[in-house]
Amino acid sequence: MSSPRRLHPAAVFFNLIKSLREMIFLFILGFITFREQGFLYFLMVAFFIVILMILFHALAWYRFTYRVEENELRIEYGIFIRRKRYISKNRIQSIDLTAGVIHRIFKLVKVQIETAGSGTEAEGSLSAVTLGEGERLRSELKQRKKSAEEEVEEAEENNDPSFTISFKRLFLAGSTSSSIGIILAFFVVAFSEIEQFIPDEVYSNAIDWVVSLSLILIAAFIVFILIMIWLLGIAGTMIKYGNFTITNRKSELFITRGLLEKKQITIPLNRIQAVGIQESMIRQPLGYAAVFAEVAGGSQEKGEDFSTILFPMIKKTEIAPFLQEILPGYAKLPEVWEPLPKKALKYYLFRSMLPFILLGAAVIWFFPSFIWLAIILFAISFLLGWQRYKDGGFALKGNMLMVKYRVFGKNTMLIYHRRIQAFEKKQHLMHRRENLATMELSIIGKFGAGKHYKLKEMKVSNTDELSDWYSYRGKLNMNKKDNQRGMK
Questions:
Q1: Is the CA virtual torsion 25, 30, 33, 39 positive or negative?
Q2: What DSSP letter does each residue of 65-120 carry, written as one string?
Q3: Is the overall model pTM greater than 0.85, yes or no?
Q4: Residue 121, by phi and psi: left (phi above 0), alpha (psi -120 to 50) or beta?
Q5: 454 contact partners, CB below 8 Å, separation of at least 6
């Protein structure tokens, strides 16, 4: 495929939509500013801008070419300034195919090529090519001669480990996801912004109507809104993770997911920096968790969160068998953890309770009749602090360090020694008096940024042990002792 190729003509439409989406707030601002005076001129200017954008993207499409030649993907683009980008096959870390709703209608995909040096943007991005072209390009860049369908069939024949999520699990994942709170916050912020555009008379009539309702109707209305938000959270999770499948193909993980926007994500095993198990406050009592991975590199265009979900909803008893099949090197879940010392409890309670104590004091001061609310906040903060202390701990198995901690949900991180970029021990005055210390680990995360994990108020002896393990001092001391025994 040495001859230059162009993207599918639909790329003009996709790039135009992207530009219009980026300028939507400018158009809204213009509409609000000129809706009473000069609105016709605003429409003419807006129409002229859209025409210019269409011409610009059409010319950019014509000037954009790509080809595979001499073990390189060569992309040339630019209208006035011609740019050339060469991406060696040996540098390519992952090739992802994404198909949105419109892509799938026309049987098109978006190809994203990432290297270890990819930042906020993918190293190479082809916004619209045919499905067959995308599969051929991926096969050629990965030095394979087989299409994606043949790869899947071969994977099944070779019994490559593969897991899919059932509809029941997906529904339960949506029912217990944290996206419900995000949607609720979005509604509150959106309402506060839309309020200024609602005519005063309409707003006043709506408020009078709500006040005139009985408490039972108001409560029923609130319950209805909460149920709708809950259903939206379920729908969002099912749309995002529908048809979720993860397969281990020797040197990489292959993930497909999405109902409306279908994604095919490739994760090289050598880019995985850590594996985590997350148990939210709702899922933990039910015995479920989500398994995720911290993957080095990546780009914002990949459309992934800061952590890559390896399985959105799984029973805790199934995690070890799952990791044994998908990532055998991480299937070392410990049975015994080194807990935090009893002296650490007061620190965890204080940090957890202080914000709620201040909030409760404000409630008592301004709304004395709601003192019961302050008592509830105090109890919740106490329980949260106790749970954070109870769930903190670590375990060491050979060259792997396992750390567990809680913010709101419980997190368990599995990190190999070679993936830890920095180890830091911290102590303040009170810590030194009580022989306590805080450990902080750093690894490489998404977009090349660092990810940090802290375990506070550990025994000093434990932090020193882990410090020796990280710096190999512990191993050197053991070798020295062995040598001394041999000399005797």
A1: negative
A2: EEEEETTEEEEEE-SSS-EEEEEEGGGEEEEEEEE-HHHHHTTEEEEEEEETT--S
A3: no
A4: beta
A5: 405, 438, 439, 440, 441
- Asked if 93 and 271 touch (Cβ cutoff 8 Å), the reply is yes
Q: In this predicted structure, what is the pLDDT of residue 347? A: 95
Note the pLDDT tens digit of each residue in 336-380: 899 999 999 999 999 998 888 888 788 778 877 778 877 888 888
Contacts of 163 (CB under 8 A, 6+ apart): 245, 246, 311, 322, 325, 326
How is residue 207 written in tokens?
Answer: 């408020």
| Helix (H/G/I), strand (E/B), else coil: 35 | coil
Question: Which residue from 16, 24, 114 is spatially nearest to 60, judged by alpha carbons?
Answer: 16
Extents of the domains making up the chain: 10-157, 173-240, 338-482
| 108-144 confidence digits (pLDDT tens) | 999 988 876 655 567 788 989 998 898 888 888 876 4
Could you please state the CATH topology (level 3) that the domain comprising 338-482 is classified under: PH-domain like (2.30.29)
Element (H, E) at 478: helix 473-487
